[in-house]
Specification:
Length: 223
């Protein structure tokens, strides 16, 4: 039996329609950010849930093992930042534009401090009965999972390696996954939760195997 509704954490609206209705259809010019990510949402059994990935642990990847939104850096062939977000969404978890209930809405452009890159953030709703997100390449993504909004209401302190060395940082721990840094800051802002000291956390990391064009040395992934 499905559980009853859960009171939403944060000041943002409770329903998906209202959450997405806050943001415009348009997007900033492609040159204003070096990467793009998508906050994919769905109605869970009792509350809104957000799609997250856990990156595969690799010695060449500074964001190895981090929890993130699907996304990555802009490529020269991308006609817009929305195209970047949609391309990466399909490449990483197999979600295509037809799987979404409408085009992604532009939320904001955020600075991933540690790696000095601006990231365009979009949000979209997964359509009912559409292809479920899945791991397409184990070399890049180890797990996909859905984070319930209520999980963001509890903060734990964990030790993580940051740009300033090993530090104790605020985190959300859910089903064994540890969410901290850039991704946690963005998702908390999206749901109207107060800011915490998360700006020293992991951001986008270089991926030499996929570098090309003028952004080849730009950082690519976020944690």
């Amino acid at each position: 039996m499905a559980s009853g509704p859960v009171a939403p954490v944060g000041a943002a609206p409770a329903t998906l329609a209202a959450l997405l209705g806050r943001f415009p259809e348009d997007a900033p010019p492609v040159g204003t950010a070096g990467a793009a990510v998508t906050i994919v949402l769905r109605d869970g059994e009792s509350e809104v849930e957000t799609l997250l990935i856990e990156r595969t642990e690799r010695p060449t990847d500074p964001a190895s093992g981090q929890v993130a939104f699907p996304g990555g850096r802009v490529e020269e062939s991308d006609g817009s930042l929305r195209v970047t977000a949609l391309r990466e969404l399909e490449e990483e978890v197999g979600v295509t534009p037809s799987d979404l209930q409408g085009p992604p809405k532009y939320v904001s452009t955020e600075h991933a401090v540690r790696f000095g890159i601006r990231v365009a953030v979009f949000a979209a709703r997964l359509g009912e009965g559409k292809n479920p997100p899945t791991v397409l390449s184990a070399d890049e993504v180890a797990h996909v999972f859905w984070l319930p909004r209520s999980a963001l209401g509890t903060t734990r302190r964990v030790h993580r390696e940051t740009g300033l060395g090993l530090m104790e940082v605020p985190a959300t721990v859910y089903d064994g996954h540890i969410l901290w840094g850039f991704t946690r800051r963005v998702i908390r802002e999206f749901f109207g939760l107060p800011a915490e000291d998360e700006r020293i956390g992991p951001a986008f990391a270089p991926d030499p195997s996929r570098g090309r064009g003028s952004d080849a040395d730009a950082s690519r992934r976020q944690g």
